Amino acid sequence: DLYRKVFVFRKDPSDAYVVLRAELEQPLQNFTVCLRSYTDLTRPHSLFSYATKAQDNEILLFKPKPSEYRFYVGGKFVTFRIPEGRGDWEHVCASWESATGIAEFWLNGKPWPRKGLQRGYTVGAEAAILLGQEQDAFGGGFDVYNSFSGELADVHLWDTGLSPEKMRAAYQSLRLPPALLAWKSLSYEVKGDVVVKSRLRE
After folding, report:
1. Residue 90: per-residue pLDDT
2. What are the residue ranges spanned by the domains of the chain?
3. C-alpha radius of gyration, the chain, whole number
4. What number of other Cβ atoms are within 10 A of residue 46's Cβ?
5. pLDDT tens sequence across 136-183
6. Which of 20, 111, 105 is closest to 70 using CA atoms?
7. Which of the 8 DSSP states describes residue 162?
8. Contact of 80 with 105, CB cutoff 8 Å
9. Cα dist. 104→44, 112, 125, 166 in Å?
């Protein structure tokens, strides 16, 4: 149970990462991924990387610069431009549904304009899911200059699109529906220089 805990990625650049294990019964037609990050990096960095053998950027949350997030599904991406952070925690949720190809992006409990991405696509179930590195091959192929340095917390993955109420609940750390990956019952393995610490503040 990682409640009120964080992963601290201590080095910059870093070869460290955290492997997450999810029980995926079948490919994903819909999903929502949420997490909280705290960093002073200005270079590109990966937050959440879900790769299959067929596609290394099956699901990817990537931040090329402080004013931008990229959300990948099946190797294609859409860009969400944001105001540059004030050096605080940022909570992001990204959701996608195959039927409409609609990609939603929420930052700190507020939705951004929706975009179109990979309508009709299916996300593979046999996945390597990593925090802190971007996979250029299944479970590997890292570029340290895309690595994450800082603190990560509240990682979740659902096989549904969350409602606006649940998106806001995720931001406020309220009760959430059962997830494929849930912060309070996370199955994970640390690889390299990552430390689990208590959150310094709310």
Report:
1. 96
2. 5-193
3. 15
4. 23
5. 999 999 999 999 999 999 999 999 999 999 999 999 999 999 999 999
6. 105
7. P
8. yes
9. 21, 7, 21, 13
39, 87 contact by CB (below 8 A):
no
The long-range contacts involving 166-173, CB below 8 angstroms and separated by at least 24 positions, are 167/32, 167/34, 167/93, 167/95, 167/104, 167/106, 167/109, 167/111, 168/109, 170/34, 170/91, 170/93, 171/91, 171/93, 171/106, 171/108, 171/109, 172/109
- The structural architecture, per CATH, of the domain 5-193 is Sandwich (2.60)
The rounded distance, in Å, linking the Cα atoms of 103 and 71 is 8
Q: What is the pLDDT of residue 87?
A: 84
Place of tokens 């605080």: 88
Give the 3-state DSSP-derived string for 77-115, with helices as H, strands as E and coil as C.
EEEEECCCCCCCCEEEEEEEECCCCEEEEEECCEECCCE
Name residues whose C-beta falls within 8 Å of residue 36's C-beta, 6 or more positions apart in sequence: 89, 90, 91, 92, 152, 153, 154
Model confidence over 75-101: pLDDT tens digits?
999 999 999 878 899 999 999 999 999
Strand-pairing partners, residue 144, are none
Query: Under a CB-based contact definition with an 8 Å cutoff, are residues 90 and 37 in contact?
Result: yes
**62 φ, ψ to 5°?**
-135, 140
pLDDT > 90: percent of the chain: 95
Q: How far apart are CA 33 and CA 160, in angstroms?
A: 10
Instruction: Provide φ and ψ at 2, rounded to 5°.
Output: -100, 20
33 three-class SS = strand
